[in-house]
Design a protein that fits this description.
Blueprint (H helix, E strand, L loop, with lengths): L19 E6 L5 E5 L4 E6 L2 E6 L15 E6 L5 E5 L4 E5 L1 E2 L7 E3 L4 E3 L4 E2 L4 E3 L9 E2 L5 E2 L2 H5 L7 E4 L7 E4 L4 E2 L5 E2 L13 E4 L5 E4 L4 E2 L5 E2 L13 E4 L4 E4 L5 E2 L5 E2 L1 H36 L7 H13 L12
Antiparallel strand pairs: 1-2, 2-3, 3-4, 5-6, 6-7, 7-12, 8-11, 9-10, 13-14, 15-16, 17-18, 19-20, 21-22, 23-24, 25-26
């Protein structure tokens, strides 16, 4: 998800904000910002950002000034209701789009005449019932007027304390490993996703942790699956499969079985025996032929005995006594 900066402090295209605590969008799609630190309401109009209520440098009556605004609302006519905690007032500002009055509002870079929207110099003020104990409010004076009780701003079990030392009017005391204005930042070593794959995170100190991994996982954050086939060899071309807590040798075909595919079926044993026997017979035959040829050579060259000499002479005589007859064909036309 990408974010877009709409107002930037100290630039020509933005208004400097101080402790903005809320935003609201009206029916026209314009954005209103509660700038509590500067005691004003900022609006994003066609000409950029401008001040519409509680503007510094405008000649308005004190009833139009804000002291500590922290809530904003609109009615069906577009009028603005501002809950001002600092003055204990709810002020209604009526917008007049065709008013002849001219109100000049200050932006971060220029003075803009607000021809599109004007704020009336008069406002309807609602003054709530005053309680004898200023720490409470409401019709029955049973609702705490403390900012800590109303806003409950502190997160992650932070403790809210009312104070006049800052513009917020309260300060959050954060528990260990949490910080920020609202205790919104979590610096605990063990976060919800520190140890993955169902690993259990244990804090060893304020900055270190240790993951106890579930079965079948390892690593600093239990991110690596254990390979149980790392040191396993499956015989007879078997394939090792790494399971959750163990391994399995997947044997090829129906001829092998066993934990490591080391067992052969009876039919395969018979076929292997026959193949080996045939191979032995062929080898023995080749050895005998080679031995016979070597014996003949030894008799001929070392002892002068040639067992096949007589047979060779007889074959030569037969060839001489039976000369080859050449037949020639004579063609007569």
């Amino acid at each position: 998800m990408n974010a877009t900066t709409m107002t930037v402090n100290g630039t020509s295209n933005g208004i400097s904000l101080s402790d903005p605590i809320g935003v609201m969008i009206d029916g026209n799609g314009y954005l209103y910002i509660i700038d509590m630190g500067n005691r004003r309401i900022i609006r994003s109009g066609p000409n950029g950002y401008d001040c519409v209520i509680g503007c510094i440098g405008t000649s308005v009556s004190p009833s139009n000034q804000l002291y500590q605004p922290y809530k904003l609302a609109f009615d069906s006519h577009g009028n603005i209701f501002v809950l001002d905690y600092g003055s204990s007032l709810i002020q209604k500002f009526m917008l007049a789009t065709n008013s002849c009055e001219s109100t000049t509002m200050m932006t971060s870079s220029q003075m803009i005449d607000t021809t599109s929207i004007n704020v009336r110099t008069s406002s309807s003020i609602f003054s709530p019932l005053s309680c004898s104990n200023t720490a409470y409010m409401g019709l029955n004076c049973s609702i705490s007027s403390s900012l800590c009780d109303i806003l409950q701003p502190c997160q992650n079990n932070g403790t809210c304390n009312n104070t006049n030392q800052n513009s917020l009017g309260y300060i959050c005391s954060c528990p260990l490993h949490f910080n920020g204005t609202y205790c919104q930042f979590d610096d605990r070593p063990c976060q919800p996703n520190t140890c993955i794959n169902n690993g259990i995170c244990t804090e060893m100190s304020n900055t270190t942790f240790m993951c106890k991994c579930a079965i079948g996982w390892k690593g600093d954050r239990c991110e690596t699956k254990i390979n149980y086939c790392a040191n396993i060899t499956c015989l007879n071309n078997g394939v090792c499969l790494s399971l959750l807590t163990t391994y399995k040798c997947e044997c090829l075909g129906q001829s092998y079985s066993g934990k490591y595919c080391e067992k052969s079926t009876n039919s395969l044993v018979v076929h292997q025996a026959i193949s080996k026997s045939f191979a032995y017979i062929v080898i023995i035959a080749l050895i005998l032929v080679a031995a016979f040829i070597m014996t003949l050579d030894i008799l001929k060259y070392f002892f002068g005995i040639d067992p096949v000499r007589k047979n060779l002479k007889r074959k030569r005589k037969i060839k001489k006594s039976n000369p080859q007859v050449i037949i020639r064909f004579i063609y007569v036309n």
